[in-house]
């Protein structure tokens, strides 16, 4: 089967950063593969190593700069990559629906049986692309997957989903499917020197909207970024000191002041 | 992996290797460095990780499962790894020196026998050149390898000193004279560590680099087949010149890694430590110190890159390698010294890493050719070309 993995290059801000317009200054950003996507790549490569996946294709929406990060996914074992970019994306703030438009077109072209996607991206944290894509392309889906056992013959993915409050749901998803991958699903490998060398020779197909049969109007975003600021935060944490008796006494006092057990 | 893209003339592939080793050093090497130093034990799990990344095959030809890295990649790996732990970087560079010698001088059969396994991490290699009475002057060595024509074997006798990976190694490249009376008869041999008469001595108690496994090795009628002679008789040192120059660039890169680690620690401390009502980073004396340290690191790194470029281009890199090693090791020492100074009393305790950087840095001025020897090489270059 073919596995498609959606990946994203995200900028992580230094501890100290400047805001320029509606973004963090690029000099204060370090670009890296989105953490969740690293687990998705690892899951796909493990399926390839187990002989279940015949091909692992990474797809991203990002400018040329993102190739360095995408190549890391190739170095870890993805077979090839598709990088979609278009002038229409420059300076815009893509919404989930425009990303799904792009990925839908890529899925039509690639015809994967399994799409793996990180639960969320570390920068925008929408946590929506994977499941919205599943809805659009009519695949079954499971979100926040932290355990995966794929039975290719039966065409079923047995997954654990992480729910709130420490509860896990064990469920079966029929293929073709979209799974959004939670950190902890596996232990992402480091690339190897050999992998890095091979990755230099693997294909990253630069693709624009026209190549996918889309127009700028198709991916017009309903979102506009109007302002970027650092929220002010007050901290009035009190560190309780003293031995256990004193600390317990002070804690009880604080709780009473705050109305607990009053 | 970081996405730092500033000021480097590395190729995409070299940059990707740098990012990979940087992340590995930060996540897997540095966290255990203090404990390994305190216990004086080499972190074997880190070595296994290096093997998984393919770093133990850095200087092994691709045909034998290695990556046959270019000199710049080799330097970048050494710098990044030394930024995590000099002891680990040193162990790897010695292993690589051995695989380089095997790749260059060994027979096909021997390459088949050793290189694929060494590329996978084990056996580890050791490089036996220095002796108790012959350090900077290898021609003064007294280890001998006498040819026994009946068995067609060489019989090694003598003592080697300061052998990195001494007790970890499964195979060693050994330099010995085939004629005890002829200083020009130094020859290179391949000696498996399980050969009878290969005797590993006790670990040295060292000022720094304490996680590195350093021992003496004695040869007591240690016999190896004549086929284990790697170079023609008398060509042991001269044939290995290119390899040793490359190794020197690697050591220079390691010194840059230590200096950079010390600079980074001092910068972070200067930002958080407050005196006289402001962070140290606001005080001009400290700011200027850090500016000097930063310039030292940058200059050293560029000398290393230039030496690597020359070696890669097939130019004579001996002087450039010596300049890089001399400058970078002095930078490591002075930057680590200032880093301790900026930390004040805390820097003198094991609570902070800078005291280890300070102890580790010193050895970079001594091993793989002392500063004095590097200056001699540089001076020779000056007068020979005049």
Question: What features would you describe in this structure?
Answer:
- The complex is a heterodimer of chains A (262) and B (386).
- Chain A contains six helices and 13 strands.
- Chain A is of the alpha/beta class and 262 residues long.
- Chain A has a single domain, classed as HUPs (Rossmann fold, 3-Layer(aba) Sandwich).
- In chain A, the strands form three sheets. Chain A has a nine-stranded mixed beta sheet, with helices on both faces.
- In chain A, strand 10 (156-162) and strand 11 form a beta hairpin.
- The longest helix of chain A is centred in the first third of the chain and has 15 residues, at 35-49.
- The N and C termini of chain A lie far apart (62 Å).
- The mean pLDDT of chain A is 94.
- Chain B has three domains: 12-122, Orthogonal Bundle (Butyryl-Coa Dehydrogenase, subunit A, domain 1), CATH 1.10.540.10; 125-228, Beta Barrel (Butyryl-CoA Dehydrogenase, subunit A, domain 2); 241-384, Up-down Bundle (Butyryl-CoA Dehydrogenase, subunit A, domain 3), CATH 1.20.140.10.
- Chain B has helices spanning 12-29, 33-39, 44-53, 71-84, 86-105, 108-119, 241-272, 284-312, 318-343, 354-364, 371-384, and strands spanning 124-128, 144-148, 153-164, 169-177, 186-192, 198-200, 214-225, 274-275, 278-279.
- A four-stranded antiparallel beta sheet of chain B has the order 2-3-7-6, covered by helices on one side. Chain B has a three-stranded mixed beta sheet with strand order 1-4-5, covered by helices on one side.
- In chain B, a hairpin with an 8-residue loop joins strand 4 (169-177) and strand 5 (186-192).
- Chain B is globular.
- The termini of chain B are far apart.
- In chain B, 53% of the residues are buried.
């Amino acid at each position: 089967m073919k596995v498609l993995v959606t990946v994203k290059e995200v900028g992580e801000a230094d501890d100290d950063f400047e805001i320029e317009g509606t973004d963090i200054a690029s000099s204060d950003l370090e670009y890296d593969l989105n953490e969740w996507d690293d687990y998705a790549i690892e899951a796909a490569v493990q399926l390839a190593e187990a002989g279940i996946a015949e091909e692992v294709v990474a797809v991203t929406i990002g400018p040329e700069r993102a190739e360095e990060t995408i190549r890391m996914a190739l170095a870890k074992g993805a077979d090839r990559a598709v990088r979609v970019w278009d002038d229409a994306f420059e300076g815009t703030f893509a919404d989930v629906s425009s990303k799904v438009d792009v990925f839908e077109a890529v899925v039509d072209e690639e015809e994967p049986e399994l799409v793996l996607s990180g639960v969320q991206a570390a920068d925008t944290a929408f946590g929506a692309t994977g499941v919205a894509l599943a809805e659009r392309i009519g695949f079954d889906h499971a979100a926040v997957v932290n355990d995966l056992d794929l039975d290719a013959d039966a065409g079923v993915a047995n997954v654990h989903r992480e729910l709130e409050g420490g509860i896990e749901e064990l469920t079966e998803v029929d293929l073709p499917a979209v799974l959004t991958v939670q950190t902890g699903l596996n232990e992402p490998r480091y690339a190897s020197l050999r992998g890095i060398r091979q990755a230099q020779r693997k294909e990253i197909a630069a693709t624009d909207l026209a190549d996918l049969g889309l127009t700028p109007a198709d991916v017009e975003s309903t979102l506009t970024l109007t302002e970027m600021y650092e929220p002010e935060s007050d901290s009035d944490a009190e560190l309780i000191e003293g031995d256990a008796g004193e600390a317990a006494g002070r804690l009880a006092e604080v709780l009473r002041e705050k109305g607990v057990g009053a | 992996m970081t996405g730092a893209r500033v000021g480097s003339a590395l190729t995409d592939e070299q940059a990707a290797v740098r990012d990979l080793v940087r992340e590995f050093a930060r996540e897997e090497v540095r966290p255990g460095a203090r404990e390994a130093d305190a216990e004086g034990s080499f972190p074997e799990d880190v070595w296994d990780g290096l093997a998984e990344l393919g770093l133990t095959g850095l200087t092994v030809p691709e045909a034998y499962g290695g990556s046959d890295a270019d000199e710049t990649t080799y330097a970048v790996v050494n710098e990044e790894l030394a930024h995590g732990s000099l002891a680990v970087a040193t162990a790897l560079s010695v292993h690589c020196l051995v695989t380089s010698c095997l790749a260059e001088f060994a027979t096909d059969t021997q390459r088949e026998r050793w290189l694929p396994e060494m590329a996978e991490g084990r056996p580890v290699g050791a490089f036996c050149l220095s002796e108790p009475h012959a350090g900077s002057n290898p021609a003064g060595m007294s280890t001998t390898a006498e040819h026994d024509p009946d068995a067609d074997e060489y019989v090694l006798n003598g003592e080697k000193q300061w052998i990195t990976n001494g007790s970890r190694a499964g195979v060693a490249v050994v330099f010995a004279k085939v004629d005890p009376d002829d200083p020009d008869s130094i020859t290179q041999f391949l000696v498996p560590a399980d050969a009878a008469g290969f005797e590993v001595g006790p670990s040295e108690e060292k000022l720094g680099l304490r996680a590195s496994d350093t021992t003496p090795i004695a040869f007591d009628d240690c016999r190896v087949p004549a086929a284990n002679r790697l170079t023609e008789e008398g060509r042991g040192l001269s044939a290995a010149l290119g390899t040793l120059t490359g190794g020197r660039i690697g050591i220079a890169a390691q010194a840059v890694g230590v200096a950079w680690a010390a600079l980074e620690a001092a910068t972070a401390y200067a930002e958080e430590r407050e005196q006289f009502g402001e962070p140290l980073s606001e005080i001009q004396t400290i700011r200027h110190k850090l500016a000097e340290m930063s310039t030292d690191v940058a200059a050293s790194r560029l000398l290393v890159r230039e030496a690597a470029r020359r070696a890669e281009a097939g130019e004579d890199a001996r002087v450039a390698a010596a300049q890089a090693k001399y400058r970078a090791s002095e930078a490591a020492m002075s930057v680590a010294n200032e880093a301790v100074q900026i930390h004040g009393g805390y820097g003198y305790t094991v609570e902070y890493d800078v005291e280890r950087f300070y102890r580790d840095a010193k050895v970079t001025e001594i091993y793989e050719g002392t500063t004095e020897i590097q200056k001699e090489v540089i001076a020779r270059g000056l007068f020979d070309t005049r």
